[in-house]
Design goal:
alpha/beta; Alpha-D-Glucose-1,6-Bisphosphate, Chain A, domain 3; 4 domains; six-stranded antiparallel β-sheet; 23 strands
Length: 465
């Protein structure tokens, strides 16, 4: 993680990582900074062709205007896609062979946040070395002023063709659109598949729930699913890259369920059965890939890390269960909640019900907790854990396998003064015990280092589904 330099205006520091710039507009992220970053990005891409779009936050027009201004000053040709999803910008870059793209979004963050996400050839997010190169790029203006064109994104037409007319005919679907950009096109797309659609929270720019569907309880969606006898409910975030499922009984499922169902479809219909997932993803994915004689590789937590593993290992699919994110690089090289939804509706149609579909996956239980520690002390604590746990996986933090069908992942947060402890096992009790055991160990180690640690449990518990 890196931060923007403080400006003379006295603004607080915005956060900038490979996942994008994030901040509150005119508090820790202003239009001058946005324009400056876009100018640097344009110079980094040597005044190329750039696609630009935004989600539906109220600050989107001002921030997109600043981004467009910076790109034009760098001599870029800008294709304005208007209000569009993050996956649509990725698709635009890859399909039209553009030099890059910028999505103005804070994704799943609260409504008063906004941000900038950089996209490069061949339609993927940037990596750490590229982020550094962009930050160090020149801020000089181009002698040739760029131009701006309004473009209709190719994404929706391609996805419609891929989803198929009446491909899920008769499936009843409830949609929680969260006031995001998906409000503009998801209902018609799911209807095109032949589904009966019941949509809520479909006014763009009005956010009646927590934008992140993995965090919000999705009570309203659950009620609609039950009252309308729907086969499934889908909840999206503001830029439509995350997807969380509600089952026919109104029960919110963990993000791993989204990934599992989409991977099942992929493995049944692809010859390339190599899959990349983050280290915090359920073992059910490994069981599934093994069932299809596929190969699985693990990455650090975070979409850019999964994408990098996909590219390095020529994987056909991947994702992060924790974020409800499925990635199929043959379509678009980022999480795509909408593509995931069209895939799941087809799977429900072919299998008869979501319940029947989920019954085919192995069941594990997860639990999560945090130990409040100053981040500067985390490396020493993790070092002691590694020394005590021989054979631990160090892909991201420390992953321990205390039993054949269980794991514990210990990672220091990049943004908070906590060490995160996650566990998965065959029973909820075992998962809770593992989180408790290793949280206690971290607290004890902290005590020997003579600084305070406050351990507390999160409420994020439950089956992978």
């Amino acid at each position: 993680m890196r931060t923007l330099e403080a400006k003379s205006s006295g603004l607080e520091l915005a956060i900038i990582t490979v996942s994008g710039v994030r901040g509150i507009v005119n508090k820790d992220l202003n239009v001058a900074e946005a324009s400056s970053l876009a100018l640097k990005f344009g110079n980094y891409l040597k005044s190329g062709k750039i696609a630009v779009a935004s989600d539906t936050r109220k600050t989107a027009p001002i921030l997109k205007g600043a981004v467009t201004s910076g790109l034009v000053e760098a001599g870029c040709t800008v294709f304005d896609l208007g209000y569009s999803s993050t996956p649509s910008v990725f698709k635009e870059v890859s399909f039209r062979n553009l030099d890059g793209g910028i999505m103005v979004t804070a994704s799943h963050n609260p409504p008063d946040w906004n941000g900038i996400k950089f996209i490069t050839k061949p339609g993927r997010g940037i990596f750490e070395d590229e982020l550094e190169a962009i930050q160090n790029a020149s801020e000089t203006y181009s002698p040739k002023i760029g131009r701006v064109f309004s473009n209709r994104p190719v994404y929706l037409e391609i996805l419609r063709n891929k989803a198929g007319s009446d491909s899920a005919k008769g499936v009843k679907v409830a949609l929680d659109l969260a006031g995001g950009v998906g409000s503009l096109f998801i209902p018609s797309l799911i209807s095109y598949q032949g589904c009966t659609v019941h949509a809520i929270h479909g006014t763009p720019g009005i956010f009646p729930r927590i934008i992140d569907p993995t965090v919000d309880p999705l009570t309203a969606l659950s009620e609609i699913v039950v009252s309308s006898s729907c086969d499934v409910g889908f909840a999206f975030d503001c830029d439509a890259d995350r997807l969380v499922i509600v089952d026919e009984s109104g029960r919110k499922l963990n993000g791993d369920a989204t990934l599992l169902i989409c991977l099942r479809y992929f493995l049944e219909n692809s010859r390339n059965r190599k899959v990349a997932v983050s280290v915090d993803t359920t073992q059910s994915v490994e069981d599934l890939v093994r069932e299809y004689n596929g190969k699985i590789v693990h990455s650090k937590v975070g979409e850019p890390n999964v994408v990098r593993k996909i590219i390095e290992n020529d994987c056909g699919a991947g994702g992060e269960g924790s974020s409800g994110g499925y990635i199929e690089p043959g379509f678009v090289m980022c999480r795509d909640g909408v593509y995931g939804a069209t895939t799941i509706t087809r799977m429900i149609k072919s299998e008869g019900s979501l319940k029947d579909l989920l019954s085919q996956f192995s069941v594990y239980y997860q639990d999560r907790g945090n130990v409040r520690i100053d981040r500067s002390h985390a490396p020493l604590i993790l070092k002691q854990i590694v020394e005590a746990e021989k054979g631990a996986d160090l892909t991201d933090g420390v992953k321990i396998y205390p039993g054949e069908k269980s794991w514990v992942l210990i990672r220091a947060s990049n943004t908070e003064n906590v060490i995160r402890v996650s566990a998965e096992a065959r029973s909820q009790e075992t998962a809770k015990d593992l989180v408790s055991k290793y949280s206690k160990s971290i607290t004890e180690i902290a005590g020997t280092l003579e600084f305070d640690a406050l351990s507390w449990r999160s409420s994020d518990t439950g089956k992978y589904t």
